[in-house]
């Protein structure tokens, strides 16, 4: 059975479909996300990327950490964040952090904002700092310091095999007072992938070289394809946009989350006429039943 969920923002809906399938025990074929797209996998990648990013050489920097990396690290839940307001604070002050590319940049900018906070009074209610306390700014600085410590610790290791590097990093997250343990699912999938990379277990490499290679492991599509071949073929649910389903055939099509701001490429608003256009198109050419 093939089912399509057509929505203006499929990337947003896909995780929900996966979660609902697990909650209700629905046996269906839902592709596993690569490790780099899981919060803990992404966090490990970013912590190592701080010292191996290609922009380091181009910009002649000692390391590289921009606002996107910081937000992903905080949101990834691998680093312990006592104050949950830290994430929203950085989002609200994003414009001030756009030029921050190194840890000193971050520390200097936060110090400037802390100093500026003392000058903010009721005449500046439109300024984002008016609604942010000095304590939260201090907590932001503490989190950046923790990220700096963790990233430095992860890069401080002697030469060892690829598997030994991986084991060392997993143990670090188990023992560090600043982090949570890597999720068991990620540990298991990493072990399965690394077992197949027998060549990597015979040569000692530096931590920097390991950090540059880890992306291929965290984004290992070939391993996932091999796993897919061993799975029993189940009902397939595709979550996609209206422009990508045109040449596919499905037994059921569900159209969801369209409104006056979200509509297909043909420019029609999602009033009755547009709904009829979509329904007739899919009923006549692509599927058995259409639901809204």
Output the keywords:
single chain, alpha/beta, 5-stranded parallel sheet, 13 helices, 5 strands, globular
Task: Give a quick rundown of the structure.
The protein is an alpha/beta fold. It contains 13 helices and five strands.
The average pLDDT is 80
Question: In percent, how helical is the residue content?
Answer: 40-55%
Radius of gyration: 24 Å
Count of individual helical segments: 13
Order of helices and strands: EHEHHHHHHHHHHHEEHE
List the helices and strands and how they pair.
Blueprint: E1 2-6, H1 10-23, E2 28-29, H2 39-49, H3 55-59, H4 67-75, H5 85-92, H6 94-97, H7 103-117, H8 134-155, H9 162-175, H10 184-196, H11 207-218, H12 221-230, E3 235-240, E4 252-255, H13 272-285, E5 289-291
Parallel strand pairs: 1-3, 1-4, 2-3, 4-5
Q: What features would you describe in this structure?
A:
With 292 residues, the protein is α/β, with parallel strands linked by helices. Helix content is 52%, strand content 7%. It has 13 helices and 5 strands. Helix 5 packs across helix 8 (134-155). The radius of gyration is 24 Å and the shape is globular.
